[in-house]
Design goal:
It is built from 14 helices and five strands. The chain has 328 residues and is mostly helical. It folds into two domains: 7-190 and 295-325, HUPs (Rossmann fold, 3-Layer(aba) Sandwich), CATH 3.40.50.620; 212-289, Orthogonal Bundle (Tyrosyl-Transfer RNA Synthetase). Helix 4 crosses helix 8 (133-142), helix 4 runs parallel beside helix 14 and helix 10 runs antiparallel to helix 13. The protein is elongated, with a radius of gyration of 22 Å.
Length: 328
């Protein structure tokens, strides 16, 4: 680059198949950013292990699928650095060094910590790794001298913690770590097929790499207006999940809303139209995914090349960190 661009760093946590909510909320933004910034994007597999440490066999499969899905969504390894977190061991070293200076109280006050403890009551996540994962997030960003981090408003407390850790390190030793700023992204309010927040843990997602048949099957399960019992009953599109999806995919939201209120269109027909619009939107991703899956050597090369590029930057940063701490 003739003139250094601002550096953007962001990761996608591994927790199952990438779904359309992940795509609209994060990955589509990554694809746009790679043309305007110097970008480091990664599959955050160690973050996934903070809550998914029991079934590592399934987890490894999820990691491969996520890496493949993100590439299929349009991320270009020639225009950004894309890698898997655990392929760059320097993340773990900086995580350890930063954890040594991070007060426990800072971690306990992170809003999502208590929220997830309440939401995931059936699993043992009161672990050191789960409490400390915001420090790992900080290490992920600071390791590359990240200046900008694309986040939604719900992630701002994590980024503020990252800045606090950076300031504390710079005060204790010498100022070498940046204080990353938020690159706020608007997170679409896309619910799952059952009307709740789209989440792999709820099983209500639509995978971004789904086939046409899978899309039809998932859309057919979407909840509609519960008060519309018969085809001839007028409906209320404002309480219908299918209607909300029409607002994100295709251009028929106004048409189907009017048809619903007038009972001139039934729920089955409305779902068929949505499935067709969804497939038209996602078909290019599915096609790229099939092409990539048929070339495993290319996938392996992309992963290795990304890790090599990331490691070069990470190693340079750790040399500075150790020097500042006077430990090497």
């Amino acid at each position: 680059m003739s003139q250094r661009q601002h550096r953007v760093v962001s990761g996608a946590r591994i927790s199952g198949r990438l779904h359309v909510g992940n795509f609209l909320g994060a990955i589509a933004n990554w694809v746009r950013l790679q043309d305007s910034y110097e970008c480091f994007f990664f599959c955050a597999d160690w973050h996934g292990l903070t809550t998914g440490y029991e079934d590592t066999e399934a987890f490894m499969q999820q990691k491969e699928e996520t890496f493949l899905d993100i590439l299929a969504c349009g991320l270009d390894p020639e225009r950004c650095v894309f890698f898997v977190q655990s392929d760059v061991k320097e993340h773990a070293e900086l995580y350890l060094l930063l954890s040594l200076i991070t007060p426990l109280g800072w971690l306990e006050r992170v809003p999502t910590y208590k929220e997830q403890l309440q939401q995931m009551t059936g699993r043992e996540i009161t672990t050191h790794g789960f409490l400390g994962y915001p420090v790992l997030q900080s290490a992920d960003v600071l390791l590359y001298g990240g200046e900008l981090v694309p986040v939604g408003e719900d992630q701002l407390p994590h980024l503020e913690l990252c800045r606090e850790i950076s300031r504390r390190f710079n005060h204790l030793y010498r100022p070498i770590l940046p204080e990353p700023q938020a690159l706020l992204t608007k997170t679409p309010n896309l619910v799952g097929i059952d009307g709740r927040k789209m989440s792999k843990s709820y099983g209500n997602e639509i995978p971004v790499g789904a086939s046409a048949d899978e899309i039809k099957q998932r859309v057919s399960m979407m909840v509609t207006d519960p008060q519309r019992v018969r085809r001839t009953d007028p409906g209320d599109p404002d309480v219908c999940t299918v209607h909300r999806f029409h607002g994100f995919f295709g251009s028929e939201q106004a048409t189907v809303a009017q048809g619903c209120r007038e009972a001139s269109i039934g729920c089955v027909e409305c779902k068929k139209r949505l499935a067709a619009a969804l497939w038209e939107y996602l078909a290019p991703i599915w096609e790229r995914k099939q092409d990539l899956r048929e070339n495993p050597q290319r996938l392996q090369d992309i992963r290795q090349e990304g890790a090599t590029k990331a490691r070069q930057v990470a190693q340079d940063m750790l040399v500075e960190v150790r020097s500042a701490m006077r430990i090497g």
